[in-house]
Design brief:
By secondary structure, the chain is of the alpha+beta class. The strands form 2 sheets. The chain has a 6-stranded mixed beta sheet. It has a two-stranded antiparallel ribbon with strand order 1-2. Helix 2 packs across helix 5.
Length: 177
């Protein structure tokens, strides 16, 4: 059985506490592992995976910040779909070979302050939505931005794997009273 991504986003909106805007299109995700090729897991996929989706989200972000590409990639499903700044990458291999090194370099010297995190799921699919603030210096420039991250995960034979990532950020704004 295949679930349209807009159905997943409707579930996210229903489970999410507070306002949420998710712009997703006609891309489908496999439900319960059906139609997902698990035969070409990344070599690091034998690494112990946290049992809780929130812990997977934390481990993934920590791995990126520490420059540990192997551990970060091990938490991705091979066919992960990543949306960031209007662009898209369609696999763990594509992300690892292109944008992941830049993400690791960017996050290496930044401080991440988490504002909020919500999650939900049904035991086979899960989502984690996180809002945070990133501050520090990158390439000689001050960084101060608000960031949102939505991770959609699938429970696979090897544990939870991130199937979709949507990152968005804006310059930090002081909330109006």
């Amino acid at each position: 059985m295949r679930i349209e991504l807009n159905t997943i986003s409707a579930c996210i909106a229903r489970w999410f506490v507070g306002p949420v805007i998710i712009g997703l299109s006609q891309i489908s995700f496999a439900h319960g592992g059906e139609g997902v090729d698990q035969s070409h897991e990344t070599p690091a996929a034998t690494v112990s995976t946290p049992a809780d989706p929130r812990a997977v989200a934390e481990a993934f972000n920590r791995a990126l910040a520490l420059g540990d590409g192997d551990s970060a990639r091990a938490l991705l499903a091979p066919e992960v779909l990543i949306f960031e700044s209007g662009g898209a990458e369609s696999s763990a291999a594509e992300y690892a070979g292109h944008h992941m090194p830049a993400d690791m370099a960017f996050l290496a010297d930044l401080k991440r302050e988490q504002y909020s995190q919500q999650n939900g799921g049904d035991g086979k699919n899960a989502w984690v939505a996180t809002r945070s603030r990133l501050t520090g210096r990158f390439n000689g420039e001050d960084v101060d931005m608000d960031s949102t991250e939505t991770l959609v995960m699938l429970k696979m034979d090897v544990g939870w794997r991130i199937r979709h990532i949507h990152w968005s950020s804006v310059p930090h704004r002081v909330p109006k009273p």
